[in-house]
Description:
The chain is of the alpha+beta class. The chain has helices at 56-65, 68-77, and strands at 4-15, 20-31, 34-45.
Amino acid sequence: MATFVERQEHQLEIIPPYSIIQCRRADIIEKDGVQVGKTYHRHVRTPGEDVSDDCEELQAVAAALWTPEVIAAYDASKAPVVSEQE
């Protein structure tokens, strides 16, 4: 009888200067130990964002990199742009 197994692999990329984390998740399907399918999903997490639902690796990286100073610098970079309107 054929058995199917689904597993996930994660690849993390750190994007400077604010340590934004991009995560690529591979969903891999195996049948009797042989890979029969793979799909990818990407998502991005920014400093200060809730990562409690993400993989343990991403949570650990965020905890290490997202200091209060990094979060404040990232928040300051998002300040609204004031435009002149006539």
